[in-house]
């Protein structure tokens, strides 16, 4: 399925990831909203973890 995939939005001439797919019913169907995790809520943790690794591309 799509779980774990990115939710992105256009930001000028680039795209930024704003969410991560959690789950949903009837993917993309009217009256069945998808459920996402907000990436910004975890940015401090993500930055801390990434700073511990020298070779992440």
Automatic annotation (TrEMBL):
<dbReference type="Pfam" id="PF00089">
    <property type="entry name" value="Trypsin"/>
</dbReference>
<dbReference type="GO" id="GO:0006508">
    <property type="term" value="P:proteolysis"/>
</dbReference>
<keyword id="KW-1015">Disulfide bond</keyword>
<protein>
    <recommendedName>
        <fullName>Peptidase S1 domain-containing protein</fullName>
    </recommendedName>
</protein>
<dbReference type="InterPro" id="IPR043504">
    <property type="entry name" value="Peptidase_S1_PA_chymotrypsin"/>
</dbReference>
<dbReference type="GO" id="GO:0004252">
    <property type="term" value="F:serine-type endopeptidase activity"/>
</dbReference>
<dbReference type="InterPro" id="IPR009003">
    <property type="entry name" value="Peptidase_S1_PA"/>
</dbReference>
<feature type="domain" description="Peptidase S1">
    <location>
        <begin position="1"/>
        <end position="51"/>
    </location>
</feature>
<dbReference type="InterPro" id="IPR001254">
    <property type="entry name" value="Trypsin_dom"/>
</dbReference>
């Amino acid at each position: 399925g799509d779980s774990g995939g990115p939710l992105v939005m256009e930001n000028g001439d680039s795209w930024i990831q704003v969410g991560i797919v959690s789950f949903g019913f009837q993917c993309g169907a009217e009256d069945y909203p998808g459920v996402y995790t907000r990436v910004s809520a975890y940015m401090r943790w993500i930055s801390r973890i990434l700073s511990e690794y020298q070779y992440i591309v």
